[in-house]
Structure formats: structure tokens, C-alpha cells
Amino acid sequence: MANHDICTKTMWALSVPLCILLIAFIALTAYATYSFHIFVPIAPNNDIDCEQMFNTSSENFITYIENRTLLEPSQNDKNCFSIRRRRYLPSDMPKSMAGNHNMYFIRVVSKDYDFVEEVLTMMHSPIHFFCFPIDISADALFKERMFRLGDCMVNVLVPRELFNTSTAHGMLNAHRKCLKEIDEFDWKHAVITAEHDLPLHSTKFLSRRSRRLRDMVEINGVHFKEEQLLAADANDTSSQLYQVTRNWMQHLCSVATISHSQHKTLYDYLLRTPNFDLPNDLHRETYVVESNCDTKKYDVDGSCLYAMEDFPSIRNTTRLFIRGDPHYDFGFVQCVHEVVFERTYFDPISNKNANNYLYGSHKNLINDYRN
Asked: Which residues form a coiled coil (predicted)?
């Protein structure tokens, strides 16, 4: 009898830690299963075969042009897990993405939350920062979703203050709010973009490119050194700095790369220059920036809105960003996402031959990655 009691006690003593280990194993497996996408980025899963969109004479391309994919709002998420599950925002990147040149991407937003998420997914990296100041024209649902996005992602900032960006100074104050938010962090360059700008390259490509600027500022392709910014006179409307920055602001601040060391000097100068109204839905520019726009559709500031007709040519452009309209051709936005994904994860030499390699082997890399 004594032996039986001893065996029973021994079995119970062994079963308790085994049960604990089994429960821990099941919990770990469940966590890994449901959270795997957080650590390993997943390729965008589009209904469009973007590879076929390079052939403008194909039946699939012509059919798509007749029935373009438009932006369809997703459900209003109530928790961070839903956002990560849908967008697969990674918490780590491949070793080829490692680096200490932290970038800061800033854009004022007012609508189209799903478009904001799509572009953030194209560019996201845990070593960079992202800031989205919100315009006062945004509706309540957009603000709610943006604030939740900022709360969920440690490197995504969404200031609670709203901004009237219908004027140049209002736009500049929105930027400056972001710049002040994390000024104590060691970011190197800030990239300012307009609301509907789409990147054409990986964040590593943009980071490597901005490193060459060192302490300079680049606006509309023009470089300004520290001494030029320090000596700038806000009343001198004939100076190159005034002309370039005014043109930049008139086109909704797309695109500028600003060094951390010079952002205070630059924005002090800009906020001393005369204020003026910016183009918006009520006030559209009649001046067309790009006369050879294939879509013949333009934004409020006269910038070309790119669509699937332009998709074959983006392989050969030297531009960093282009403007798109998700309510006219969201499928184009999704295909640009595939391009950026491939340039981020499949180019072993970091976009050195970015214009040549994409789809050059006639091998669908995206599908290979998904499988």
C-alpha cells in the first residue's frame, strides 16, 4: 500500500511540471503562429497580377484600365493586433537593412486612412521614424484610426494637435511639430512628402542617398549648405532659397530631405517668409507641373496623378516619389507597393541596379516569396 501511495505521489509530482511545460509549449506555438507575420514581413497580396501590367498591349492590361481597382476602406480596428495582422508591419528587418542612419519621414494627412497604411507599409522599418500630423479638415473616424495607429507603433508618431494646413505657415508648423517631437533622438535626415506621394525605392536606398547630403538640405533637387541657410534673408524674395522653398510649399511640400543639424535654421527662415494660401480642394492650381502626364489627371497643385498607364515606365525613372490617387487607381498603388517590396527584399546590392533587375528574369519574385 505504501508503495502505491509513493508511486501516486511521484506521478503527480512529475505530471505537474510536465503539464506546465506542455501548456507553455502550446502557448508559445500559438503565439508564434499568430504573430509570425510581425517578425517576418509578408509580400503584398494583391488580386492584380502586377507583372502583366508591364505589357500595355496585353488583354489583362487593357481589361484592367477599363475596370480600375479603387480604394475600399477597411474595417475600423479596435486593437493593435488587427493592424499588424492586416499590414504585417515587421518589428525586425533582414540583415541587409541594418544601419545606424536613422531617417524621419513626415507627411501631413487628412483622409484615406487605408492609403496612409499602404504607404507606411511600403516604407516601414524599425530603425526609422514616421510622423503624421493631421489637418483640421479630417473627419472623426480618420482621426480616431490615425491616433490608434500612432499608439500601436512605437516608431509612428501622430500628434494630438490638429493643424490648418491651408496656408504655408500652417503646413510648416505641422512639420515643425513632428521635428520637435523627437528632436532628442539621433535621427539623421527628415524626408518631407505630400499626402498622396508614393515611394519608388526602399528606405535603405533613401537612407544611403541622404547620407551623401551630410549637413546640407535638398529641396526640389537643389542643395543648400549651412552657410546659405544662416545668411538667408526672409525679405529677399529674389534669392534662390526663397524661390525654391516657395515653389516647394506651393506643391504641398513634396519632396525635401532635411538634415537634423539644419532643420531649426531652415524652419526659422521659412516661418519668417510671407505666408500664403496653399492649393486645396476649394482652391486648385491651374498651372500644370508635368505637361506630359499620361493620365491627364492632376492634383490640386497641378502635379500629375500617376496610374497604371505609367507603371511600365517607373522602372526607369530617377524620381524618388510620385503622386497617386487611390480613388482613381488604387491598383496602381498596390503594384507600386510590390515594386518597393522587391527593391527592399530582393536586391542584394541595395538598389545599385534598381532600374535593371526588376522582373528582368521574368520570374515572379513576389509569388516565390509568398510560397
From this structure: none
Q: Where along the chain do its domains lie?
A: 1-39, 50-370
Give the global pTM. Answer: 0.84
End-to-end CA distance of the chain: 60
pLDDT tens column, 221-236? 999 999 999 999 999 9
Whose grid coordinates read 497580377? 49
102-119 residues labelled b (16+ CB within 10 A) or e (exposed): bbbbbbbbbbbbbbbbbb
CA distances from 70 to 172, 252, 294, 313 (A): 31, 24, 19, 21
**Amino acid letter, 36:** F
Query: In angstroms, rounded to a whole number, what is the distance separating the alpha carbons of residues 315 and 354?
Result: 8
The CA–CA distances, whole Å, from 360 to 20, 51, 154, 275, 354 equal 53, 11, 37, 48, 10
C-alpha cell at 70: 479603387
From CA 154, how far away is CA 165, in angstroms rounded?
A: 26
Residues in the chain: 371
Alpha-carbon distances of 89 from 86, 94, 125, 154, 205, rounded to whole Å: 8, 13, 8, 12, 19
Strands 189-192 and 129-131: unpaired
